[in-house]
TrEMBL record:
SUPFAM superfamilies: (Phosphotyrosine protein) phosphatases II (SSF52799). Residues 46-79 are annotated as: Disordered. InterPro entries: Prot-tyrosine_phosphatase-like (IPR029021). This is Receptor-type tyrosine-protein phosphatase V-like isoform X2. It comes from the Eukaryota.
Length: 79
């Protein structure tokens, strides 16, 4: 259990820890199905962002993971 003092960051941590634990336990029920569904929803996030530089044929061999592609606005440009 985290230390509890009146006010300050320690009090804030104390109050948030049980909430996180309860959330984790609820999502862990039913063979982690809730975690799977939550992760599945993330597949749709960012699909409208351009990835033209990453998908350019000379750059495809530089992608570490073929299913994880950086957006044009956030990718490192190799020289």
């Amino acid at each position: 259990m985290l230390p509890h003092t009146q006010g300050g960051a320690q009090d804030l941590c104390f109050q948030q820890a049980p909430s996180f634990r309860q959330s984790y336990e609820a999502k862990s029920a039913h063979a982690h199905q809730t975690f799977f569904l939550e992760f599945k929803e993330l597949k749709e996030v960012g699909k409208e962002q351009p990835r033209l530089g990453t998908e350019h044929p000379p750059n495809t061999t530089e992608n570490q993971y073929p299913h994880v592609l950086p957006y044009d606005t956030s990718r490192d440009r190799l020289t």
